[in-house]
From TrEMBL:
It comes from the Bacteria. It is found in: Bacterial flagellum basal body. Residues 18-36 form the Flagellar basal body rod protein N-terminal domain. Keywords: Cell projection, Cilium, Flagellum. This is Flagellar basal body rod protein FlgB. Pfam families: Flg_bb_rod (PF00460).
């Protein structure tokens, strides 16, 4: 029987959601910056398949590289309605993304809470 890696997967998903939220927040913050192009992060499934193993930090002074930062790219999925200043950020699209991130986070934490409760019940009996 293989060990259950659900908690690690949930932790990776939460980290991905955190990085995506910071990218979306950066897009919203730069909504009036001339020539700014909206950014987004690769889908979680793509990032999960490409991350693989990485070096462990065994000492607090060790630097660690965030593998998800490399998956930030220009967002080509939007209708690029470029303003006269050259800005291609749609606040409506960014707010929709922020709402989706919140829903995914709530779903992930709800599933983890349920799984944790289920594990506690099986151990207690």
């Amino acid at each position: 029987m293989e060990p259950i890696q659900l908690f690690q997967l949930a932790s990776d998903k939460a980290h991905w959601l955190s990085v995506r939220q910071s990218v979306v927040a950066g897009n919203i913050a730069n909504a009036n910056t001339p020539d700014y192009v909206a950014m987004d992060i690769d889908p979680f499934e793509t990032v999960l398949n490409s991350v693989g193993s990485r070096m462990a930090a065994t000492h607090p002074a060790h630097f660690t590289e965030d593998p998800l930062r490399g998956s930030v790219r220009a967002d080509t999925g939007q209708d690029l309605n470029v303003s006269p200043s050259g800005n291609a950020v749609s606040l409506e699209e960014e707010l929709i993304k922020a709402g989706d991130i919140r829903k995914e986070y709530e779903l992930s934490t709800g599933l983890m809470r349920t799984f944790h409760r289920m594990m506690l019940q099986t151990v207690a009996k």
